[in-house]
Here is the input.
Amino acid sequence: MSIFKTTRRVAVSLVAAAAATVALQANAGGHGIDLEGKTVEWIIPFSETGGSAKWANFYAPLLSEALPGQPTVVVKFMPGAGSTKGANFFQEQAYDDGTLIFGSSGSTQFPFLLGDPRVKYDYADWNVVLASGTGGVAYLPPDLAGKMDGLDASGLQGEDFIYGNQGATRLDLVPTLAWEMLGLNVESVMGIKGRGDGRLMFERGEANIDYQTSSSFLSGVTPLVEAGTAVPMMTWGSLDADGNIVRDPTFPDIPTFKEVCEATDGCETSGEKWDAWKAFFIAGFPAQKMVFLPNGASADAIATYTKAFEDVQARADFAEISSKRLGKYPQMTGAAAETAKASATSVSADAKTFVVNWLQEKYGVSLN
Here is the structure.
């Protein structure tokens, strides 16, 4: 839980209450639920090509083995409106028999944080049973990567970039704000249904800058790097126990945005723009993906899914198989997942105000 140390604005009482609630849930009844002969539908509000798809498809067969009765776990993709379509659908579902779960991402969390009018869902109604940390890697074609001078991105400031963007209020605001801070001229093509679609644009030459979350980078971009058609530019980094941005443990040889910013003239790692970027990075990545049961879920159902994910992580081969597919990040259950949820769905008023104003100025998106 130390990676969330910097989110001090999250009320201590909220975390304590969440931990107490989870303790009660874990002990309630003690019976769990039996899912033998049933099919669990796992809704992912993105397309089949992005990091959320990789994450869910990794966990689904392992979860099937770990749940009582070994039900079939089917991943159902429901893209649209930058993930708010699927999230709004899940909000309308009441708990029935434990056969419906939802996979959220930073691109689902950000519209909620920013008060996007399309959001009809409330994280307070959902019951978290897993929170997964992740990272992100930005990359370039080799000819443009060659214009960087070590960590200094100044050589890219005269270039014109095209980026496939899921939406102004989505997780993509982390890379687009970072590129702006570096002085890059990046034009967003809005409305792609998942980050995997952005990668395909890059592969087809329709975009010349992109970023992927770690799971998607490992599976989809690493082959491009090995083929010499993509070059990593930077990661967003990770947080140490004191809340400092350090190198991503999955990509320790790739510099962080903070390092590149410090080396690039005009980019500052202090002030309101940096503070806003870091706040949304923290909200979007250390607990970037979460699994929820719907409103009204029984204590036994929550305890059953929590134990199943804990059993998955207790497998002797989990560290090896997860690092290859997801990267080396915390996978949290119980009180840790509740703390992660609180951190991922809270930002300071100053950070929110800055980003709301920035979105209006940059994209003409009004959230006021």
